[in-house]
Every structure is written in C-alpha cells, then in structure tokens.
Give the backbone structure.
Amino acid sequence: MRLTIKNVSHRYDQVEALRDINLAIEPGEVVALIGPSGCGKSTLLSIIGGMLAPSSGDVLIDDQAKPEGCLNPLTYVFQDFALLPWRTVAGNISLVLEDHPLSKSERDVRIEEVLAQTNLSDFRDAYPKQLSGGMKQRVGIARALAVRPAVLLMDEPLSALDAQTRILLLDEFSDLFARTGMTAVYVTHNLNEAVRLAHRVVALRRRPGTIKEIHSIDIPIQDRREGMHELVSHEQALWNLIRDEAIAADKELENVA
Ligand SMILES: Nc1ncnc2c1ncn2[C@@H]1O[C@H](COP(=O)(O)OP(=O)(O)OP(=O)(O)O)[C@@H](O)[C@H]1O
C-alpha cells in the first residue's frame, strides 16, 4: 500500500510542530523517522495513522493493494505495549478482532497464526503480568499483525526494553520485515535500529519540524548484521546529520527541568 504525505503541517497552539512535510512511502518499504526530541516524529506518525488531523495537508492512502483479509490498513505498535492486564495473551490479541464480523473460528485461526509468527504459542493463556518486557512487546506485535495490516506504525517499540532484549527483538523485527515485505513507519531515537531496519531514514529538524534529509540504505534487510561495517558508516552519517540539533534539544530539556 502506497502512502503519500502531501504538504502536511501541524500546529499545537503556540508550537509549530511540523511544516510542509512531503513524503511518499512505497509498498514494502520500511521508513524510519529520526531526529532530536520534539522534532515532530510522533506527531507525524499520529497524522499518518489518522489519530490526529493535520492543521493542513493530506495523507493519501492507495488502498487498492490491501493484503488479503486486511481488517485495518494501518495499525500501531506502542512503546508501552498497551496490553489489558485482565486479558490473557490470546485475549489481548482477540480484542482487535472483536469489532469485526469474524466468526469465533476465524478469530481463533488468526490468533493461532500470529502467536506462531511471534513465537508466543506456548504463552497464549498467560497474563501480561507474567511476561517479561520483551514478551509483552511480542504480544503487541502479534496483536498488530492479527488485523493483517498493510502498514505497521511503530512508535519507539524497543525503547522500554533492556539492552539484550532490544537486540533479540531487533533481529525478530528484521526477520519479520524481510519475510513479510511489510510496509512500516518506525519512529526511533536509536540510530542503530534505524540502520538495521529501514530502507530509508528520514531525518527531521525541529522548530518547526521539517525534513532535513532522506538517507537511503541499499543493503537488503535480511543481509544486515549487527556491527556490519557499512551499517556503522550509515549510522555515523545519520549522527552527523542530527548531532548539533540533538545536543541543542538535550540542553533545552536540561534547562526546563
Ligand atoms: N498535545 C500537545 N500539545 C501541545 N504541544 C504538543 C503536543 N504534543 C506534542 N507537542 C509539541 O510538539 C512538538 C513535537 O512533538 P512530538 O512529540 O511529535 O516530537 P517527537 O519528535 O516525537 O519528540 P520525542 O522524540 O521527544 O518523543 C514538541 O515541541 C512537543 O512539545
């Protein structure tokens, strides 16, 4: 599914969060949004997902090419997992299917399918409080996949996890993108995640949030490995792009505190 972001600007009262963003995201493409704190990454993701109406501009969705059985073309994976504590793993996944006209057996088929895809089949009856952070985020991914989306919208999905779990899940995301050819928009502060997962990395500058540069990484996702020389070079190039503004944003936050 092709997404076209056309002349999108957004203002929250006094804050001009985004100005004139133009970007086309092709089917099967993973695009990372990076940039200093407050540059408008989450605002742009919310606008793409239809959770926030932009002050001006449009997001055009070509939904001719939706996957078979797609219930929601766009679906979110949240940083804080957003699981209901009183529902089991299977119950949390079922939640996103219950508003749709599916029989119980159709729901069950989808639940089993996404549990298998995320290696959660043995945990279907566990409750969130029994799971580690990494397992909770796997449930978040399984829940998103259950609607067979055309596009995954991911807002810092690894940032609440410890370093080892992050590495494990990063490998799993990389497998998922390589295997399914899923289109995704991935917001992150972490440049290593951006270079492991994205075909293109969009660096935003802040005040107002505009596109500074779009950086392409032409290595197939399945061939990328942690510490690979070419990826380290891409990461360095991205850091050079955003460094000065990241430092300025950091100082600003320190002054506020
Ligand atoms: N609901 C809101 N009301 C007012 N201002 C907001 C609101 N949400 C975000 N902002 C402001 O809009 C700007 C962009 O915020 P946004 O959260 O999109 O940036 P971000 O790049 O995702 O930041 P971070 O990396 O820190 O998560 C910031 O200056 C922020 O303070």
Notes: The longest strand covers residues 2-12.
